[in-house]
TrEMBL record:
Lineage of producing organism: Eukaryota, Fungi, Dikarya, Ascomycota, Pezizomycotina
Superkingdom: Eukaryota
Protein name: ATP phosphoribosyltransferase
Gene3D superfamilies assigned to the protein according to its UniProt record, in alphabetical order: 3.30.70.120
Entry-linked InterPro entries: DUF34/NIF3_sf, N-reg_PII/ATP_PRibTrfase_C
Length: 112
């Protein structure tokens, strides 16, 4: 029996926008744990500090062009069952995220 591919979506978001981004990825199908318990909206969050320096062509949501900015951000991790769900969750994240270029990562998971 073949299990569906699983992916982990990790993204970084200013604290004030975290709930909006989580709601968007959950609506796209992320966060549904593939077990018999029917768990949904599964995620892990941790607080940290992000930094960036917007380039000359940037239109930053936070900070100013050319100036180093540090922002309290949340790291959010959530499971995506199936490649299609992962793709839809990333699309939803990009629409909901306040940054011009949101930082995110997608990892393919393995069963052990």
């Amino acid at each position: 029996m073949s299990l569906p591919q699983r992916f982990k979506l990790v993204f970084f978001v200013p604290t004030a926008a975290m709930q909006t981004c989580k709601s968007a990825i959950f609506a796209a199908g992320a966060g549904k744990y593939p077990g018999p318990g029917g768990y949904t909206e599964c995620a892990f969050t941790s607080k940290g500090t992000g930094q960036f320096r917007p380039g000359d062509a940037a239109n930053p949501n936070i900070g100013k062009v050319g100036e180093l900015e540090e922002v309290e951000e949340m790291r959010v991790e959530s499971i995506c069952v199936g490649r299609e769900v992962a793709v839809k969750a990333v699309e939803a994240l990009k629409k909901a995220h306040p940054y011009e270029e949101p930082a995110y990562e997608v990892y393919k998971m393995e069963d052990m």
